[in-house]
Amino acid sequence: LEKTHTFEINEYIDEETLKNTKIYKISIKFDEQNLSSVLKIYQDKFSDRIYLANPFKTCIELFHHNTNKFEGVKALCKHFDISLNDALVIGDGDNDIDMLQGVGTSIAVQNAASKIKKCAKYVGPSNNDDAVYHILRTFCDI
Questions:
Q1: On the chain, which terminus has fewer CB atoms closer than 10 Å, C or N?
Q2: Residue 110 and residue 107: Cα distance in Å, rounded?
Q3: CATH code of the domain in which 23 resides
Q4: What GO cellular component term, any one, is given (predicted)?
Q5: In terms of domains, do 55 and 76 share one?
């Protein structure tokens, strides 16, 4: 495995370190007022090169534009020779939308935002109420 780094918000990263580091994800926390202007800039200037997820009200995550959870699900399904129609996913945030819409069985947790629930075929219990356990028992008889 490659060596990975996590840089905390209070660290300054010199240009040489940055040039020699593969970046897989950048998470940035904003106050709600600044977040909307950042989202607008992203949409206008970077949406063709960077995939942005907004998993929480004050946080964005930046990825390579061909990377998201659904791409990971597709890779796993291909590796294990599973049809996407036979896959089951559970989601609760904006970064789960592509994944929820792309498989045969998709479940949003009860405490997800309504726009996330609309993307899923089913709504399960809250993730505060052991959602994964109940969903796997119900759908996979585990």
A1: N
A2: 9
A3: 3.30.1240.10
A4: cytosol
A5: no
Residue numbers of the domain that contains 80: 69-140
Look-up of token digits 């495995």: 1
More confident residue, 2 or 46: 46
Q: DSSP letter for 111, please.
A: T
DSSP-assigned states of every residue in 14-63: -HHHHHT-----EEEE--HHHHHHHHHHHHHHTTTTEEEEEEETTEEEEE
The radius of gyration computed from the CA coordinates of the chain, to the nearest angstrom, equals 17
112-132 pLDDT, tens per residue? 999 999 999 999 999 899 999
Number of domains present in the structure of the chain: 2
Mean pLDDT of the 13-31 span: 78
| CATH assignment at residue 102 | 3.40.50.1000
